[in-house]
Amino acid sequence: MEQSHFLKDLVIVYVLGAFVVFFFQKLRQSNIVGFLVTGILVGPYGFSLVSDTKSVHILAEIGVMLLLFSLGLEFSFRKLMQLRNVVFGTGSVQVATTTLLVVGIASLAGVNIRTAVFFGFLAALSSTAIVVKMLIERGETDAIHGKVALGILIFQDLCVVPMIVLVPLLAEPGSIWLPLGVALGKAAAVIVLVVLLARYAFPWFLYHIVGTRSKELFIIATLCILLGMSWALSLFGFSLALGAFLAGLTVSESEYSHQIFADIRPFRDGLNSLFFISIGMLVDIRFILENAGFLVLLVLGIAIGKAILTTLAVTITRLPLRIGILVGLSLAQIGEFSFILLETGIRNDLVGRIWYQRILSAAVVTMILTPLFFWISQRIMANNRLYALIKRFGKNRSIAELDAQSSAMQDHVIICGFGITGQNIAGILKANRIPYLILELNARTMREQKLKGQPIFYGDCTDASILLHAGIMKARVILIALSDPAATRAAVQTSRSLNQEIVILARNKYLAEIDELCNLGASEVISEEFEASIELLARILRVYHMPRQAVAQEIKSIRDERYRIFRHLDTTIPRLRLSTNLDVYTETHRIEAHSPLCGLTISESELRQKTGALILGIVREKDTLNNPHPAVTLEAGNLLIMSGTKDQLKKAIDLLRGDAKITSHFGLPFIH
After folding, report:
1. Is there a contact between 462 and 322 (Cβ–Cβ < 8 Å)?
2. pLDDT band for position 513 (50/70/90)?
3. Which one of 313, 334, 401, 550 has the fewest CB atoms closer than 10 angstroms to its CB?
4. What single DSSP character describes residue 90?
5. Architecture of domain 575-669
6. What is the CATH code for 2-379?
7. Where are the domains of the chain?
């Protein structure tokens, strides 16, 4: 009978959870927020739909073990080293300052020092699951602020392990130093054991398991490692969650870690949802209503305090204030691992029921408000006055070297962002002796590339003063190759406001963002999403032995259709500066069948006499005519290469198309 009740409870939890999460997905809220709300609804303080809460909590604890096991699997020393400056620099500052501030405030409020330290631990952690999901949904994982936020979250997750060890010690009476020494000794012994198992025992064990080619046996072996190590470490006083994390760590560097992660992920996601639901079940709605005033102050204090301290931690590492604000607001909530610490604290009588409910309620509310924090950061960056104020206070002062470099340049290229795209472009420009300079916000990348002789400088390309020091008024092209959509939009708008003539090339991820970038002033926008699909299509067609000419035609038709926006915008025109007063441009134009000049010779068209533009060459299907003879006939499909001033090229395109009017955008001709 009890089993049927438990099964009924699980059905209620999952069915209601599915509806609530579906509703929150429509509101673009995190699934975790939906699970927390589900727990509030079904719990004893809600509609009391679940009778056997103890069994639900047991399953939830298994979900936590799987969560920490997967975290250990995903923990990569290589990834850690790539972000080491942020992880150990910015991350340590954020955790330390948050903990110390909370300890100070709690001590002044009369809380004993041990409990105050515990409160500091709880407040220092942010939600890895929610923040990473939000960054992925917004396409900002590769942006500077996304990488910084991820680095801080990694450090916070690493801090969970020593915090779990220290929390029971804080609850013990008397001096903490002897128990702390014993705990550190145990921890050292466990680390040695983990290293030995990871290097010798588990690889041998998994190798023979994989050799059987039995998927079921492989999954059973994985669960044996997880449950067995958690149980063994619990005998030495460590929590099951910590044991699960160390179990994941032992197999994280093995060649089977990716398959293990793929196998346990369905179990983790299914049971992990129960963890958040079980947390929601502990929230007392009546308590929240009775203590609404205090909880509002507590939530505001946590959110504002964490946002400010995280922003300061980021700016201390010489990143712009803009990045600091974005990271600070994204990490302004209390994280899921704080719930694990809170459960440990209540079991060890470190906090009473009143403070337990206060912290629990405040934590759940901050997690629910996380999408709002992201929205606020987006609104701040979209507000021109606030953004200008942020840039002024976060201005980069080390610009003397940048001034010296740009002052000697003319008609150069400014490369914003030095990832793979920027590096490839710089290599080609260097090989062709085209002058360029680079603006980059990653201090490590800047130092490494400077040693290689690259003209790279630390600077925020969304800041007008930085662009002016980079010589944007004299530059011919600015390439914006950033992974941050908001920064890309700001850089395009700022660049166009400073120089109406410059060619702005922007790289973005999604095709849907092209319209906005072009409206802000981009000359051309290259979508990674679209270009990748074209390249994949070309490969598929070639596998089926489709002629190259046919493949090229298919790709052209797709580009004409998807990039049709550019029919109403300016095209990128190469420029030759003959003197300070004369620029000569080159342009290409394909003759349409309805063109009034189609079928006439060059001489009969009187193109040179009427417009001043000169035909340098004609590209046809089988041959290319260089400096064509006046008697050459202009045929439909011919690609004309012309040179002249802007005005001359406008008139030539007008004549070739038979248009009565030529419109221009930012002073450059475009083709209707």
Report:
1. yes
2. confident
3. 550
4. I
5. 2-Layer Sandwich (3.30)
6. 1.20.1530.20
7. 2-379, 396-568, 575-669
What is the predicted pLDDT for the residue at 109?
87
SS (H, E, C) 521-553: CCCEEEEHHHHHHHHHHHHHHHHCCCCHHHHHH
Task: Find where tokens 């014993």 sit.
Answer: 182
Would you say how long the chain is, in residues?
A: 672
Q: Give the whole-angstrom CA distance, residue 483 versus residue 50.
A: 46
Find the mean pLDDT for residues 598-603.
90
- With tokens 């000794």, the residue in question is 185
In angstroms and rounded to an integer, the radius of gyration of the C-alpha atoms of the chain is 31
At 388 the pLDDT is 63
- Report the candidate in 466, 162, 131 with the shortest Cα–Cα distance to residue 326: 131
Pick from 459, 467, 350: nearest CA to 398: 459
Residue appearing with tokens 């492989």: 218
Burial class (CB in 10 A: 0-12, 13-18, 19+), 419: middle
Q: For a pLDDT cut of 90, what percent of the chain falls above it?
A: 10
Q: Do residues 188 and 128 touch, judged by C-beta distance below 8 A? A: no
State the number of CA atoms in the 13 A half-sphere of 420 facing the CB.
3
Specify the 3-state DSSP secondary structure of 363.
helix
Cα 537 to chain centroid distance, Å, stands at 27
The pLDDT of residue 289 is above 80: yes
Please determine whether the domains at 2-379 and 575-669 fall in the same fold group of CATH. no
Q: Of 86-90, 360-364, 401-405, 576-580, which has the strongest mean pLDDT?
A: 360-364
- Alpha-carbon distance of 269 to 248, in angstroms, equals 16
What separation in angstroms does the CA of 624 have from each of 137, 617, 621, 629, 638?
A: 48, 7, 8, 12, 10
With CA atoms as reference, report the closest residue to 438 among 411, 390, 402: 402
| E strand residue ranges, 275-337 | none
pLDDT at position 665 over 60: no
Cα distances (Å, whole numbers) of residue 179 to 115, 161, 175, 465: 17, 17, 8, 56
| Contact (Cβ atoms closer than 8 angstroms) between residue 440 and residue 456 | yes
Separation of alpha carbons 617 and 622, rounded Å: 14
CATH class of the region 396-568: alpha beta
Residue 100, helix vs strand vs coil: helix
Residue 202 near residue 254, CB atoms below 8 Å: yes
* Residue showing tokens 């950061």: 377
Tokens linked to 437: 């300079």
Answer yes or no: are the C-beta atoms of 117 and 99 closer than 8 Å.
Answer: yes
Residue type (1 letter), 550? A
Tokens of 411: 């008609």
In whole angstroms, what is the distance from residue 112 CA to residue 416 CA? 51
Of the chain, the percentage scoring pLDDT greater than 70 comes to 82
Rounded distance, CA 537 to CA 516, Å?
Answer: 27
**Ordered DSSP codes for 193-246:** HHHHIIIIIHHHHHHHHHHTT-HHHHHHHHHHHHHHHHHHHHTTT--HHHHHHH
Specify the DSSP class assigned to residue 501: S
Among 255, 243, 263, CA closest to 194: 243
CA 98 to CA 331: how far, in whole Å?
12
Angle at which helices 2-26 and 31-42 pack, to 10 degrees? 140
